[in-house]
């Protein structure tokens, strides 16, 4: 076969060997961002007319690029919402890249789409939704929220007269992506004041509801504090006024896989859409957000694209491009499907229960440690605490020192106007004892 871009097969072997070692050995917790000034002299000249060659480019990747990234997949990475992809998911992701599947429509990716849909059905079943449910994997929770809200407004617009300005109702603890989506859609945001734990009730939402609201967004694991809103109460309000109820579970809805935790999401069966990111707490690599609609046909009305060059696409099958703002896509849900198919749903539930138990052990340890004050949690797997006698500057310095040494990635956040530390555990390999040893250095 003619090959305009020949590539050495021994280099291919090297790349695969590196990939294998990386998956088996895991990430280096001392890696982290480098400055532009440090990176530019090494990477700046990498694009040339003749090419630098595969070996030199791969050396740059393993020796410069990878060490200049934050190891979110390491068990000591407990800030933001990290990631904990299984070895199965990582290995499979490499194979998926090689397969080069177009998964925007059924014609291009039938087998892959069918498998992705198996994984989406598992989530829909956990939510208690029936056969009309379906969706698609998009790049992340931000896009998932936007696409769900676009479908919601389209659905509501079909029901009657449109107000001058649409509005979405959400918690004051809603993720920043809800505001970002509202800005893209040019709609207002009505915030509901959460309680002490960061949760909003149906009654609190009812108190601020206005007739121009088209959707309510419920947190199923608020990013900063782990709160799960009163989904049942919000569903009551949604049903009273024919509103779309969307569940932002990008981080926390993964916990629905744990039978012990599932009841905190009561009422989700009455929601219209949900998102959950497998790249957060469902042991899959970047980037994937499962976007699922209770009645997928509503989303197809909003998102389906038509163009003459697309007339040949078989419309009788499931076309993922109909369910979000995209056309071409990789089958980004497949590493999640592979990991779930490999290990089974029971192992998934157990792994999530393990992380919740780890969060509880850490919270208990903090509570017992003189010099530390446990402020909240764990809510799902988020813990907020503060050192009693430490200035904000000392907190920043402590966080930076431990990040650099690779002992712990634990960064400050703000809670009720105060600088505090936040831990968010998504990795079943995180060791509570190790974390508490490091936290002792705060006292
Ligand atoms: C609750 C919640 N929603 C949405 C997002 C955005 O997800 P992504 O970063 O995948 O766009 C996050 C990210 O942490 C989140 O925690």
From TrEMBL:
Read off the Pfam families from this record.
Pyridoxal_deC
**N6-(pyridoxal phosphate)lysine PTM positions:** 280
Q: Is Disulfide bond one of the keywords?
A: no
Q: What cofactor does this one take? A: pyridoxal 5'-phosphate
For biological process, the GO terms are: carboxylic acid metabolic process
* Keywords recorded for this protein, A-Z: Decarboxylase, Lyase, Pyridoxal phosphate
Q: A single Gene Ontology molecular function, please?
A: pyridoxal phosphate binding
Q: Does the keyword Transmembrane apply?
A: no
Family from the record: Belongs to the group II decarboxylase family.
The record's section on PANTHER family has:
GROUP II PYRIDOXAL-5-PHOSPHATE DECARBOXYLASE, MIP05841P
Q: What is this protein called?
A: Glutamate decarboxylase
């Amino acid at each position: 076969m003619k090959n305009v871009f020949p590539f050495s097969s021994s280099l291919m072997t090297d790349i695969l060997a590196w990939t294998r070692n990386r998956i088996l050995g895991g990430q280096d917790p001392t890696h982290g961002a480098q400055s532009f000034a440090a990176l530019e002299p090494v990477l700046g000249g990498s694009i040339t007319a003749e090419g630098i060659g595969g070996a030199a480019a791969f050396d740059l990747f393993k020796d410069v690029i990878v060490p200049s990234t934050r190891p979110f997949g390491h068990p000591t990475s407990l800030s933001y919402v990290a990631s904990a992809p299984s070895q199965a998911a990582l290995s499979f992701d490499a194979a998926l890249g090689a397969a080069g599947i177009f998964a925007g429509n059924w014609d291009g990716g039938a087998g892959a789409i069918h498998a992705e849909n198996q994984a989406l059905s598992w989530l829909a079943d956990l939510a208690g939704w029936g056969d009309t449910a379906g969706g698609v994997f998009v790049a992340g929770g931000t896009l998932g929220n936007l696409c769900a809200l676009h479908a919601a407004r389209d659905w509501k617009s079909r029901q009657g007269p449109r107000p001058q300005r649409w509005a979405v109702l959400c918690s004051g603890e809603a993720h920043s992506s809800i505001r970002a989506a509202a800005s893209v859609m040019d709609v207002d945001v009505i915030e509901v004041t959460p309680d002490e734990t960061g949760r909003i009730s149906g009654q609190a939402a009812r108190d601020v509801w206005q007739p121009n609201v088209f959707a309510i967004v419920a947190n199923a694991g608020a990013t900063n504090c782990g709160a799960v809103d009163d989904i049942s109460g919000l569903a009551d309000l949604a049903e009273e006024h024919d509103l779309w109820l969307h569940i932002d579970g990008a981080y926390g809805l993964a916990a629905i896989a744990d039978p012990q935790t599932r009841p905190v999401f009561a009422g989700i069966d009455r929601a219209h859409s949900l998102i959950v990111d497998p790249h957060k707490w469902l042991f899959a690599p970047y980037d994937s957000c499962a976007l699922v609609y209770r009645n997928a046909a509503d989303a197809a009305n909003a998102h389906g694209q038509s163009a003459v060059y697309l007339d040949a696409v078989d419309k009788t099958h499931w076309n993922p491009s109909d369910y979000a703002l995209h056309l071409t896509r990789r089958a980004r849900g497949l590493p999640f499907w592979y990991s779930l198919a490999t290990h089974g749903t029971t192992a998934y539930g157990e792994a999530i229960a393990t992380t919740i138990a780890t969060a509880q052990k850490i919270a208990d340890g903090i509570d017992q440690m003189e010099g530390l004050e446990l402020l909240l949690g764990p809510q799902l797997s988020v813990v907020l605490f503060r050192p009693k006698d430490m200035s904000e500057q000392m907190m920043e310095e402590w966080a930076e020192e431990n990040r650099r040494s690779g002992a712990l990635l634990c960064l400050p956040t703000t809670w009720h106007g105060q600088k505090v530390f936040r831990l968010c555990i998504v990795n079943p390999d995180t060791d509570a004892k190790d974390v508490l040893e490091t936290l002792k250095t705060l006292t």
